[in-house]
Amino acid sequence: MAEDIRWKQRYDNFSKAISQLKEFIEKPELNKFEKQGLIQCFQYTFELAWKTAKDYLEEKGIQDTQWPRNVIQSAFQTEMISDGHVWIEALENRNLMAHTYDEKKANEADHLIRTKYYSMLCELFENLKKDL
């Protein structure tokens, strides 16, 4: 029962983070400081997303959830997410996003978050919401 509560508590934090991310996404143009904020917000939202999925999967009896890559694979196999490749890409691009001082990389990260990563986070969020 403790695990059941844990994933729901983490989902609550994920919900708050995704709401903040949505505020960035809804702004059509961001200055360089806002882009840094968007990227940081994406990073912690992504972290909460996979950890919420991890807790949820563990509550459902799936145990191979030590690493983000395993969680993504299990989430794809259980149809919590529809595109495992974009999740793996986002996981790998976390390193790119650490370099927000580089304007070209920050612009690339902004584009990826807006065009691919935000919608994948929303999909997981909505699929988990069904089990609340």
Task: Supply the key terms.
Four Helix Bundle (Hemerythrin (Met), subunit A); 132 residues; 6 helices; mainly alpha; globular
Task: Furnish the topology, listing elements before pairings.
Layout: H1 2-26, H2 32-59, H3 68-77, H4 84-92, H5 94-97, H6 103-129
Helix pairs in contact: 1-2, 1-6, 2-3, 2-6, 3-4
Q: Could you explain the architecture of this structure?
A:
There is one protein chain. The protein has about 130 residues and is an all-alpha fold. The protein has a single domain (about 1-130), classed as Nucleotidyltransferases  domain 2 (Four Helix Bundle (Hemerythrin (Met), subunit A)), CATH 1.20.120. Helix content is about 80%, strand content about 0%. It has helices at about 1-25, 30-60, 70-75, 85-90, 95, 105-130. The longest helix has 28 residues, at about 30-60. The radius of gyration is 15 Å and the shape is globular. The two termini are about 15 Å apart. The mean pLDDT is about 95.
Task: Quickly describe the structure.
This protein has 132 residues and is mostly helical.
Beta-strand residue percentage = under 5%
Which CATH class?
Answer: Mainly Alpha
CATH fold category name: Four Helix Bundle (Hemerythrin (Met), subunit A)
Given as residue ranges, the uncertain stretches (5+ residues, pLDDT < 50) are none
Which descriptor suits the 3D outline? globular
CATH superfamily: Nucleotidyltransferases  domain 2
Major sheet, described briefly?
A: none
InterPro entries: HepT
Protein name: Nucleotidyltransferase
Pfam family, one: NTase_sub_bind
Keywords: Transferase
